[in-house]
Amino acid sequence: MSQLLQQAQQMQAGLLAAQRELTELAIEGSAGGGAVRVTVDGALQLKHVFIAPEAADPNDTEHLARLILTATENARASARETATNALLPAIADTLTHGIRQHLDPRHPNAAGRPRPTPE
Known about the structure:
Blueprint: H1 2-23, E1 27-31, E2 36-40, E3 46-51, H2 61-103
């Protein structure tokens, strides 16, 4: 049981480290051929918006709004993909290690083997 708790703590520490790294990322999305660019971090927080002067037509603010939304969604999709690629290995390594120990017949806590009893 303590080994399982230790594995969970290791996985949590790995996830926290990956999350910290993600918040430091700057991921850009664009729309309108780059006329609108936004930057988000790995936590999907909007950090910066760039609007080229030619995209800021005061007579067509709806178009500008669509460009901003599209650029933001593009950036967030890239950030989600980056986060998935960063977090999955940390989870998979920990789970694989735990499963391997559980299935290894030489391991004292393997499935089907008697568990040591405390004296």
